[in-house]
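Progress narrative, work stream C.
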Amino acid sequence: MKEFTQSLRLSPSEIPNRIYGVENWSGGYFGVSEQGCLTVHPTRNPLMGVELNSLVQMLLQRKVTAPFLLRFPQILDTRIKELHEAFRNSIAEYNYGARHRGVFPMKVNQKKSVVERLMSAGHRYEYGLEVGTKAELAAALTIAMHPNALLICNGVKDRRYLEWAMQSAKVGKNPIIVLEEVSDLKKVAEVAAALDMRPALGVRVRVFSRGAGKWEESGGETSKFGINTMQLLDLLRMAADREMGRQLKMLHFHIGSQITDIRRIKNAIKEAARVYAKVCKMGFPIEYLDVGGGLGVDYDGSRTASDCSINYNMQEFANDIVYTINEICQSENVPPPTIITESGRAIVAHHSLFVTNVIRTLNPGLGGSEIDQSKVDSEVVREMMDLHKEINHKNFREYYHDALQHREELQSLFNLGYLNLQNRAQGEWLFWEICRKAIKFSRSMKERPEEFIDLENILASKYICNFSVFQSTPDSWALDQLFPIVPLTRLTEEPTVQATLCDITCDSDGQIDKFVDLRDVKQSLELHSVNHDPYYLAIFLVGAYQESLGMNHNLLGSPNEAHFLVDDAGRPHIDKVVRGASLSQVLEAVGYQSKDLLESLRQIAQRAEAQSRIATADREAFCESYEAALESYTYLED
């Protein structure tokens, strides 16, 4: 196993933060106990921590096996409170003459339990929902919301979508239908006339300014969302001609998702507020200014404008929005609008984490044993033995380069048939041993050459984990998104292994080889050697988008899920357990019906029995095992 030593020894209390950065990205929701175990603090009370490993043991006692998605609904409560209190503070500080209304964009996490908890926690704040498709609208219509909560209807709409949105007003909802293009106005007018209704309308407008980070292309003047100012004037004129001008209640802007730099937010809000003011002066009674989403999550804890961080906090976000809109409204002498935010990622990312167990480890370049020099009959192997014996702090760089040349020579001779398999294996063993020594010696250099850093990453161990990247962390595969990853236990024990994580799919992309670091992106993660005890890893901040985007690659379905609550005495309680997808469920999703599978297998087994290839008892046992397994977990259960 590839081992390493820290250039500076850390005390046990320093390890969780110096190596894994727990304090930096956890937001106060997670910590480390004196025993070196990860803890969760759903209410942010540092005295009310529960060890995550104890929650895993509770599930195992119920015969619920890893991997798990652990959900903490109380974190949703605190995120909702923090968002609304931040805007209340800003409104009071800047003497803003209107209010703030939040809505949750369902695309971020459509799980019913999540949406219902958010609506419950946000009831006191009249928290609402944003939908972008018919399916999301169909779900939202059945969710209990505050009578004053808004239902923002975005996205491309057909007639049925529009009918449902308009009729939702008759069953107690407060819909605002957002026009995404000029032609939408005619379609809305036709449906409204047929229903004899006058729905509240919004208009999505493109701003020149856009966000920063991985998703900056989702905003700006070339984004797919909304209309430009020329089209806005056409739409306003059409609305006036159709006597629909009084129905225009909202201007909607999409700056971008996960905006990393607060300056980009300021610039975009300034532009949006100016558009709002000019439309108001044209005589349209705009009540709401929807600034969209964009409030980011600090995934790496660096508090910078890097792709996986943000250089502001929630209160700064609220302050800049309220201050900027207030300043422009005063300068333009127009009434301030009610501010609508569609923050989703920042609301739900922290509330769930994924736990997987390490199945086994693969260690590149390991294998074989010490070589008996008397049995070596190859000159190139003997030369490599000398390099291996004589390499030291002074010559390691030169000898490493010599080893590279010898390895190429070894490969050429083998391909030409001049070396036997034993010679090649001996040379390979020596080469990797020389590499390990060179890496060790390179750590003492003041300016370590990049080639040895790269070599160390090449030799990182591979920890095979019981999960699918494509199901549980699809953004790490598709977008190189970083998620904090930390062992559940042994956090006061200095790790000795550099490793990357591989899932159990057959896809070479099913791995995580980029990790959170305060100053950079690590190519491997510091972990502990795996012994006979279970070794669990937690992947944090997966509550946003990952469940919606997860796919059944290799027919590995959704994992087991558990909801935990912590009472006032600090005791954990399982609120709900949702069993992960079974074999029959994922197979039926791709067209294999269970009854057809069973019947086909029975026929195949019976033909095999008739041909004397399987005994009757074996056939029956095989079919019974197959039938029982169809209801089992798709992940490894041993």
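Work stream C, second folded protein:
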Amino acid sequence: MKKLKTYLMRYWYLYLFSMVCMVSAIALDMITPQITRHIIDDVIVGGQAELLMRFLFGLLGIGVGRAILQYAKEFTWDCVGVTIGNDMRKDLFRHVQTLSMDFFDRHNTGELMTRVKEDVDKVWAVLGFIGGLAIEALIHTIFVLTCMFRLNPWLTLVPLTVLPVIGFLAIHMERKLGNVYDAISEETAELNTVAQECISGVRTVKAFAREGYEIEKFSRHNRKFYELNMGQARLLANHQPLISFLGKMMLLAVVIIGGLQVIAKRMSLGDLGAFLEYANNVIWPMEILGWLSNDIASAVASWKKIQKVAKETPQIADAADARPLERIRGEIVFDHVGYERGGQVILQDVSFRIAPGETLGIMGMTGTGKTTIVNLLQRFYDVTSGRILLDGQDIRAIPLIQLRAAMSVVMQEVFLFSDSVSENVKTGRREDTDQEMVRWASDAAGASHFIENLSERYETVIGERGVGLSGGQKQRISIARAIAKQSPVLILDDATSALDMETEKAIQGNLKQINGLTKIIIAHRISAVKNADEILILDDHKVAERGRHEELLAAKGRYYETWCVQCEQQDDTEEEKEVGAWQ
């Protein structure tokens, strides 16, 4: 994420062009009252009617020129603002993508969505149209006061007396609005989070009949959001009418004092007419001071929040001496690996080795650190003790992009994009995966049968997170996605939990046919790991048992106990099927 000055300097020539157009348009505005002065003094009072058409054509020319300059100025301001917003949003999103998993553990989705969308919008508005209008108001005021001073220095004291009062009110309002906008920005993030969670988890909400609770929860945040915005409206209502009133009183004072000077022959009627026009022109910058202060205060608050995200640095990054492996075979070694987080032990002294093409099964109770092994292997987090080797090289010395490209992972929580089945399968290697590979991977994952029955087959668009598919169908597409990536290491993290035993067995058989594929299978069912070359049983965050299926059964430990329980459950299921068949 770049500094604000970098974005401004990148398009300096557009800002310069817009400023030239702006100053030229303001200069034309300053000429108009002078023509009015001559019409009053020379045509109306002086009786020189032959000059009228010349002055009218002059006003017409000024109107046309000002329209062209204003169009060029406003279009350029909008163009540069939108362009900077596009660059800024892209840079921020790219920066967020580089951050490590610990950042996403600390920040919720709604908050990040607010930073990337709404906060960037507020900043680029100030760098575009709003900022241009603020500069125009300042230059316009200076030009007007200069012209007024040249007409009548003493009468210029009237607006100069009023302007500091309006400036004080604007600054006072801006300070209060700054605090309000901080609170509104935070509550916007909370409101987005609540809405996003409820909509994403709508099936869970309905399954547990939580609609009332979620509506009440959303209403609480919505009410707070409403109260904050009402507070903002009250601040504006307390200040804006007063600012407008002072402007009108200034105009009235100019008429009275200027009229007395005309009567006393100290200025001409045309001078008073021009002065009134200038005075009227200085009112609009005063009236929009509160609105500009409002938007600028909001943009400043948003920029601070964007900068807070931009200053985050990835905890996991390529080492200075990182070097890519020439060819990845898939040998994995955990050498006395330990991992702690927040003072809590997650893994302790875990060691194992998987030769290229071998399969490792991992079992254990929930919370014993099975998924953590996957996270450490992909360097979502770094080990706190020991080391992990890939083909003999510490993974911390391998570029992250190569390390993660070498692994295909099917997570516990399946995530599918709102896209076609084909595009979801291609996710890992989109450019190199053709339709034939998509079909082969889907067939290997046992997904081709139900995909062929979808309305548009592989081009069927599935909803967010795979809405419209069963749990087992989503898992099979996720497995197909991992197979299509064709990485040397395949990790299945409880990836067949929603599948029946026959489908699971068929997929395992298909995976076994893929030569040279190193597999790590994390599961709760013994049927998923019993054919592995080695099985680890985790307990109390460390390896409690290890060995092949037959060896662990013979040891009659935790693995054996799990086997007995699952065999009994399987027998009960088969008995239920038989009873159902007789009925």
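The chain is about 65% helix and 10% strand. No further action is required on this item.
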